[in-house]
Amino acid sequence: MERLVARVKRTFVGVARRMRRVARWMAGGPLATLVTLAALFPTAEGRPGVWSLVIVLGAFALLGAFGLWAGSVVIRFAGFFGRREVSFADGGVSVHRGEATKRYDAETIVSGVVIPRDDGAELRLVLRNGDLLRLRLDELATAEAALRALRLGPGEKRVAVRWSRFIHVFLAAFGGMMVASLPMVFLMARAQGTPLHVAFSLLFLVAPYFAAGWAGRRVRRTVIAGTDGLRGRVGGKRFAIRFADVRSLEAREHQILIHHAGGTLTLPLDADDAALARALRHRLEQAWERYRERGGSRSEIFARGDETFAEWKTRLATLLRRDAGHRQAAVRQEDAEAVLHDPEADPEARAGAALALAWGDGAQDRQQKVRVAVEGVASPRVRVALDAAARGELEEVQVDAARREHDRTAR
Questions:
Q1: What's 275's domain CATH number?
Q2: Angle at the Cα of 128 (from 136 to 80), degrees rounded to 5?
Q3: pLDDT value of position 84
Q4: Distance of alpha carbon 32 from alpha carbon 20, whole angstroms
Q5: For residues 409 and 344, is the Cβ–Cβ distance under 8 A?
Q6: What is the pTM of this model?
């Protein structure tokens, strides 16, 4: 694919997330230490000699935590879209600025999604460390072609979409702060003149803010769409639905209705970024259509049966070799790929297909397909088992955990 001109920006979402995590520990750790010491040594006479040092270090830690939090906000929104030339090759993307080139290899790109815009489209790539690489192009068709050039097609990768309305987050955070503050005020009043008053006073400095952050995160909507189904959280409730159980998808202007065997799931498309909501709708429709187009599989060939775990792995290592015998000769690479992508197949058989593809003669050319398929699985334990199989490190306990999760989701 020839070079394109795009407006490029890297958003340091992953860096900001890690900074906020460190800030929470920097704030909570020293404060918890102070509260514990205040409860153990309520009077000045009984306090250890390091009390003053602990207070000074705690104060510096709290100031540092606030600085990290403020820095995470700044770094997430800092920067601007610069006009650059971009090229796509070998599953990666290169950003050219004069003589300098920044390369993002296929291994560093987790997923990608095209978001339509009024002035074209944005190709948004999620990097391995959580950051976003955003490329704004003049035409939607160009963005779709760039996504295909990366071999990150909508049916080949998991796509995680998280969204919320600012007003909802604000109200939830305010409510969480009030719910945490009122009991603390009551406890401080009741503990007036007692040794616990200092401890409750220190807790009052931080508990409401932790409660506000927790409540604000509860109202965020999360949907993870893979090749085998979708899972996530909406309205504080978690869900996991296999495409095998989905009867139909009904896309409306502000919501998506997913009719499945257990009822109907409503996904409200009320993100502040309307383009993100459109991208989620487009992604779910494509994943559903791709699943419906897939045919059956021959999972019994890759099942363990009465074999020991070691015998099963040994057989699968030679299953796709042309000279391995009559039974093995009848097994095609397409059969293994069909089982690997089949969400209704037993996770043990899917892991066996991954082993057969990743091992044996000519396996190097197939390992990339296995890794792509693993990234497209929505079920966490199934994904762990398939990933271990692709690396040749599969253990029996991982297969058992994947089968238990598969059975729970199927019910």
A1: 2.30.29.30
A2: 30
A3: 92
A4: 18
A5: no
A6: 0.52
